[in-house]
Amino acid sequence: MRPTSLPISAALAASLLTVFASVAPAQPASEFPFELxxxxxxxxxxxxxxxxxxxxxxxxxxxxxxxCKGGSGQFSVxxxxxxxxxxxxxxxxxxxxxxxxDDALVAALSAATTWARQGDTVTFSGGETLRFxxxxx
Length: 137
Known about the structure:
The protein has 137 residues and is α+β, with helices and mostly antiparallel strands. It has one domain (26-134): Lipocalin, CATH 2.40.128. It has 3 helices and 8 strands; from the N terminus they run ααβββββαβββ. The radius of gyration is 21 Å and the shape is globular. It starts with a helix and ends with a strand. The model is unreliable at 1-29 (pLDDT under 50).
């Protein structure tokens, strides 16, 4: 080995480390947001101020507040895969359009197979893509 090989190799390794460190996503942004409330990225329905939200505890238990209904469910998260199984959904006195929107949202969550997080946005994909915003202060 030539005497200059080691400094060149060290310089190359340092350069590569710097490049990869700058393009790697920040670790906290890639973690699933357990214990944080997420609000659906959608406008309220006409005549209402409600926007659906989900809060998932560290055991996967979910509390859902939908367009009109509310309830629970169970999330299972492994890597970027996700499974949602709806639990009890309260049949509140909902107008038909909101009840239908609630059912469609629960079905879309149930069809989700993957999730991704970028900053304060969490996306569930696999069926209809759903985008939620983390409620952070």
